[in-house]
Design goal:
Blueprint (H helix, E strand, L loop, with lengths): L13 H6 L10 H6 L4 E2 L10 H12 L1 H11 L19 H15 L5 H7 L12 H20 L13 H7 L20 H14 L8 H9 L5 H13 L4 H17 L10 H16 L3 H25 L6 E2 L2 E2 H27 L6 H7 L11 H8 L6 H27 L19 H10 L8 H22 L3 H18 L11 H27 L4 H26 L11 H18 L13 H11 L2 H8 L13 H6 L1
Antiparallel strand pairs: 1-2, 2-3
Helix pairs in contact: 5-14, 6-8, 7-15, 7-18, 7-21, 7-23, 9-10, 9-11, 11-12, 11-13, 13-14, 13-15, 14-15, 15-18, 16-18, 18-21, 19-20, 20-21, 21-22, 21-23, 22-23, 22-24, 23-24, 23-25, 24-25, 24-26
Length: 652
């Protein structure tokens, strides 16, 4: 017999019900507002007369009243265990065992290839890449996902984010892993009082880019009620201690993180919930920053699998679960944290898989499983809850990460679908059907990327098809995004991809009027967007770390522009007389735009990126082609600069 259907949320909040007060029933009731406390509405009970077994269970619950309150507080922010967890765990086992199996899967996907050789093939200069800080990794993902993706398709010279691109993977593959299971020692959390825990939580939320995958309000409430997950809290405190940057704090951090890692052998895969996925995601971030690629990949893959399963479970019950806190639906808060965690773990997976040439046919479907993170602070329910609960101390720092995380999610989506069409032997199970989503313009970007099909054709046709899809996405973004800074940032990545796809690897370069026009459009975008970049860097519209990330992405786009123009004019000079007048005129306009872009380097904004000198030298070298091109056309060349946006020229 089916259980009795649940009612909507309770008419009285938890506080009024416990005090037997008349509740106003508003999103934040008058009693809670007067006392400045959280107003929490629980799920309603079954309608109708309860069955005898349910009544007996209810009486036992009442008899154990002291233990029921912490369980309710846990349920308000952690998804309950679900039988569907067995999808990824055919037998009852620990998370540590599952991580070992994931590591074996990664090794198998390499199909016997030497990781040392794979990484060495990407190496550039002998300069060593340092370990990354947790904020630096966010900047790396923003740009290096683009760099690593275009390197597969493009015949252009790519100035990668790292001078020695392969070093971190050569070193990281031999880094430490989880190792053999260790005996679970007493929790080091016992040595932390509530005040120190609260202070370290503040440090973490103010410093870590993944602070958006947790709710500070709900975490503090569980700490106060002693209903927290010790695994998650240990990882969070260990990460926070690293921000103090002293030797004693680092020793404490290592103890907490090692204890958390050893605890995973006592956590069942069937009981892995949202807090488990959050802890695994934070461990993946930490291990990546330390250069330990294999354990980082295992953590990120299993965290993504767990959060994907939880997302499906939560969406299935979202229409029935109407719990609220301070007027905000708790299920929607859970979903926002899951979506952000899903994208950030997927970004780590795609970044590692791309560099190591690992094939995984399930990635496109995973990218379609999650809605994109909030685009700004006003769209975030997690931060809205923090404001309502007056947890304000770290809000400015949390606001700083929203736009960059949103940008990474879209870059990851594009990288996933582009890598999926790269011609190579495929492996892995067929991709599952994606979840249905609301038809927002961001979902349209997903759907467009799905239109890139894998045909048995040459790389040139693949690039042409991908370019058409990305160009349509550019139009969607331009038509729907009002925030000029956010639009410039994401379009910088898209335009960089478009430039590289104009020059496919191992394909003969055919200089046509269309190619020249497409390239001119991209150069014009970079000219138009530079004032936005200057404004961001001078008015502090973004935090310093995000500003640097935006500048580096823009510099990668300028490098692609200079490399593309250089490739055109490195074609044998004997071919110049054979080109059509329209092509020659277009080339003349390209050279004029090159001069305009060269003038950007007089501004200090670009000088913070190590590649600026190389890119500037390219633009200087290209200026000599003006005279050669003018002498080539008998009738004289169209006036250079004809057709260029006069407003842009005036701005520059």
């Amino acid at each position: 017999m089916d259980p009795a259907p649940l009612t909507d949320r309770r008419r009285s909040c938890r506080f009024c019900r416990s005090r037997k007060l008349r509740c106003s029933g508003t999103s934040v009731c008058s009693a809670c507002k007067d006392r400045q406390i959280e107003c929490l509405y629980d799920q309603g009970g079954p309608k109708g007369r309860p069955r005898a077994s349910a009544a007996r269970a209810s009486s036992r619950l009442v008899a154990g009243q002291p233990g029921s309150e912490p369980a309710m507080k846990q349920a308000s922010w952690k998804s309950p265990p679900s039988p569907s967890g067995q999808v990824f765990s055919p037998r009852l086992k620990s998370v540590a065992e599952a991580l070992g199996e994931v590591s074996a899967e990664v090794q198998e996907k390499l199909q016997g290839r030497s990781v040392e050789d794979l990484a060495r093939s990407q190496a550039g200069s002998p300069r060593r890449a340092p370990k990354l800080g947790c904020r630096e990794l966010l900047m790396v993902l923003t740009q290096d996902l683009v760099d690593a993706t275009v390197a597969r398709f493009s015949g252009l010279d790519c100035l990668s984010f790292f001078p020695d691109q392969g070093h971190c993977f050569r070193q990281g593959w031999t880094g430490s892993s989880n190792g053999a299971p260790q005996a679970l020692e007493p929790a080091p959390l016992a040595g932390y009082n509530s005040y120190r825990i609260t202070q370290l939580i503040d440090v973490w939320f103010g410093a870590h880019p993944l602070s958006m995958v947790l709710s500070k309000t709900l975490l503090l409430r569980d700490v106060r009620s002693n209903a927290y997950d010790p695994l998650l809290l240990a990882v969070l405190l260990g990460s926070a201690l690293l921000e103090l940057e002293d030797a004693e704090a680092r020793v404490e951090s290592e103890q907490l993180l090692q204890w958390a890692s050893s605890r995973l052998q006592y956590v069942s895969t069937a009981s892995a919930d949202l807090s488990t996925a959050q802890a695994l995601g934070l461990l993946a971030w930490h291990e990546t920053c330390q250069g330990n690629i294999l354990p980082a990949m295992a953590y990120s893959i299993y965290a993504n699998r767990t959060v994907t399963r939880l997302t499906m479970d939560t969406l299935a019950r979202s229409s029935r679960d109407v719990r609220q806190i301070n007027g905000i639906n708790l299920v929607q808060i859970e979903l926002e944290m899951m979506h952000i965690l899903g994208w950030m773990t997927l970004a780590l997976m795609v970044w590692s898989f791309t560099h190591l040439d690992i094939v995984d046919d399930t990635l496109p479907a995973l990218a379609l499983m999650h809605e994109h993170p909030p685009m700004n602070k006003d769209a975030s329910l997690v931060l809205r809850l923090d404001r309502a609960a007056d947890n304000l101390s770290t809000l400015p720092h949390q606001w700083a990460w929203i736009q960059e995380i949103w940008t990474i999610s879209h870059i990851t989506s594009a990288a996933v679908h582009l890598n999926a069409i790269y011609p190579r032997p495929s492996s892995g199970p067929a991709s599952p059907a994606p979840l249905s989503q609301h038809h927002s313009w961001q979902t349209q970007l997903h759907q467009q990327l799905r239109n890139i099909q894998l045909y048995k054709v040459d790389i040139g046709n693949l690039c042409s098809e991908a370019r058409a899809v990305l160009a349509r996405n550019v139009q969607i973004i331009e038509a729907n995004m009002e925030d000029q800074v956010a639009q410039t940032w994401i379009l910088t990545a898209y335009r960089t991809l478009l430039i590289h796809l104009l020059f496919p690897r191992m394909a003969p370069l055919s200089v046509t009027a269309d190619l020249v026009q497409h390239l001119a459009d991209c150069l014009l975008f970079f000219a138009r967007s530079f004032p936005v970049l200057v404004s961001v860097s001078t008015t502090q519209a973004l935090p310093r770390a995000s500003t640097q990330s935006c500048i580096r992405s823009y510099m990668a786009g300028l490098a692609a522009c200079s490399s593309a123009i250089d490739a055109l004019f490195l074609v044998s000079h004997k071919q110049l007389p054979c080109w059509e007048p329209g092509v020659l005129q277009g080339l003349g306009r390209l050279l004029e735009q090159t001069t305009r872009l060269d003038s950007l380097f007089t501004n200090d904004t670009l000088l913070t990126d190590w590649r600026w000198r190389t890119v500037q030298e390219r633009f200087h070298r290209l200026s000599k082609y003006k005279t050669e091109l003018s002498a080539t056309e008998p009738g004289g060349m169209m006036p250079i600069g004809d057709g260029l946006d006069e407003a842009v020229l005036h701005t520059l």
